[in-house]
Amino acid sequence: MIGIRYISSYIPERYESNFDKKNQFEIDDDFIINKLGVLRVSRKLADEETSDMCVKAFHALRAKTSVSPAEIDCVIVCTQNPDAHGLPHTSAIVHGKLGGREDCASFDISLGCSGYVYGLSIAKSFLESNGFKKGLLFTADPYSKIINPSDKNTALLFGDAASVTLLSESTVDDVSWFPVKFLFGSLGKNGNALQNFNGYLEMNGRAIFNFSAVSIPVQIKELLKSVGIIINEVDLFLFHQGSKYIIDTLQRRMNLPPEKVPCNLPRQGNTVSSSIPMLLENYLERENLNKIVLSGFGVGLSWASCLIQRINKVKGD
User: Fold this and answer.
1) Which residues of the chain have pLDDT under 50?
2) pLDDT digits 0-9 by tens, 21-51
3) How many helical (H) and strand (E) elements, i.e. helices and strands, does the chain have?
4) By three-state DSSP, how is residue 73 classified?
5) Chain centroid to CA 275
6) Which residues are registered as beta bridge partners of 239?
7) Which of 58, 110, 116, 108 is nearest to 88 (CA)?
8) Which of 159, 237, 298, 314 has a CA positioned 20 to 30 A from the CA of residue 116?
């Protein structure tokens, strides 16, 4: 059975403060702190590519575990902002930079804010159906490639980052998190609410908010019903870090305790497909947690939720 073993992330060291942009966009501290929840946005270096960010996330993973590229059976990269020209696929470039085996599968997934949940389902299924033991799921969507610095709707919100999740077959004494159930949704007819238009990202924030505030509570209710648990049995709800306003709205509409809905927006902003794994990274080893709901939503319009459960496999299991 394939589960989540480790997660590591990479955030570039270059930042832009949103407080430095107050005059430019005619905003105040309250808007930055309580609406966006983003105090600064991370920015990749000029010569830093999507694949470079993935490799740096893998280097961070090596600090936690001795996993070697030679052990990896598949490399999956979730991105909609690949390396320059988009050819070859970014996962092939990452595979080459890591020095992976020739019999290692490598492919990309073109998804945004829902991409991590989709990616988990794809990676788990791909590994299990092919008898593979270990895979790497990368997320990296440096929106700075397509952000207009004069656009208030996007320049203040999106930051650059990457993550890598090691999925592996559970062994004796492992502590792994296993996906229990996935649900998905698509509203392609409204997909232009967040799009790349003439080389720049355009976002209809109101449309994204309305769709998220309505669709996500419904889907999570269906998810929990399908696995036979009630909302109080869930230890954490890790929502895509779209903005503080949407996270707070979901927390209130679902009547969730604030401590069960963490937010990490202030230090780097909305990192698209990396936002959920960057949150989850902080909770994998906490022994008091057993059930976590992950929910991503945005570009597409697309949304996906899943329940993951912690299992400490011991000898004899």
Assistant:
1) 172, 314-317
2) 999 999 999 999 999 999 999 999 999 999 9
3) 9, 13
4) coil
5) 4
6) 295
7) 108
8) 314
194 preceded by a cis bond (ω within 30 of 0): no
How much is the pLDDT for 265?
Answer: 95
Strand order in the sheet with 105-109: 105-109, 74-78, 134-140, 162-169, 2-10, 175-186, 302-312, 291-298, 236-239
pLDDT at 174: 63
The amino acid that residue 179 corresponds to is: P
Alpha carbon separation from 189 to 44, 246, 285, 307 (Å, rounded):
32, 22, 40, 28
Map residue 144 onto helix, strand or coil.
helix
Paired tokens of 228: 């036979």
Per the confidence metrics, is the pTM higher than 0.85?
A: yes
Closest among 208, 243, 205 to 37, alpha carbons compared: 243
Domains of the chain: 2-169 (3.40.47.10), 175-312 (3.40.47.10)
Q: What are the catalytic residues?
A: 113, 240, 270
